[in-house]
Specification:
By secondary structure, the chain is an alpha+beta fold. The protein has one domain: Sufe protein. Chain: A (Alpha-Beta Complex), CATH 3.90.1010.10. A three-stranded antiparallel β-sheet has the order 1-2-3, with helices on one face. It is globular, with a radius of gyration of 15 Å. The N and C termini lie far apart (30 Å). The C terminus is likely disordered.
Length: 158
């Protein structure tokens, strides 16, 4: 079963969905993880309160690129309120594999960038309120990043 999930991640890495640039995005946000060099730009186009187009570009490890591919598939065609409710642990569930603490920042880069895009659009990111109340998705995943100095994290952990 693990091989199936690994193949799934590698397929999204080799042939990422929604990879590219939008002509006129409503929001365009760059995200990076300076610890490992992962970088991405997430672009969203909203029409009538619906994410009708989404794209990303960037470079990084298989986990970060597959995560972005899966996230864009998940939010495309959904109302902004539903997109805002998409939590970090929902993305971990989509990935379907165990993520080590060292790779968690890679997996969460696309989610962090999405949250910043929603803020740029004036949307709420209250979808993570439940995760925050329980200590965040890392606690739900059996991990704790609370002891890590902010300077080593590199991205905003939600």
């Amino acid at each position: 079963m693990d091989d199936l999930y690994r193949d799934y991640i590698l397929e999204h890495y080799r042939r990422p969905h929604n990879f590219g640039v939008l002509e006129s995005p409503s929001a365009s946000i760059e995200g990076s993880n300076p610890l490992c060099g992962d970088r991405m730009t997430l672009q969203i186009h909203v029409q009538g309160g619906i994410v009708d187009q989404v794209a990303f570009t960037g470079r990084g490890c298989a986990i970060s690129q597959a995560s972005a591919s899966l996230l864009t598939d998940e939010i495309k065609g959904k109302p902004l309120a539903e997109v805002a409710a998409f939590r970090a642990d929902d993305l971990l569930e989509l990935l379907g594999i165990e993520i080590s603490p060292a790779r968690l920042k890679c997996a969460m880069l696309s989610h962090d960038t999405l949250q910043r895009a929603l803020e740029e659009l004036g949307g709420s990111t209250d979808g993570d309120a439940a995760a925050a109340a329980t200590g965040g998705p890392w606690v739900l995943a059996g991990l704790s990043l609370a002891a890590w100095p902010a300077s080593t994290v590199g991205v905003s952990l939600r």
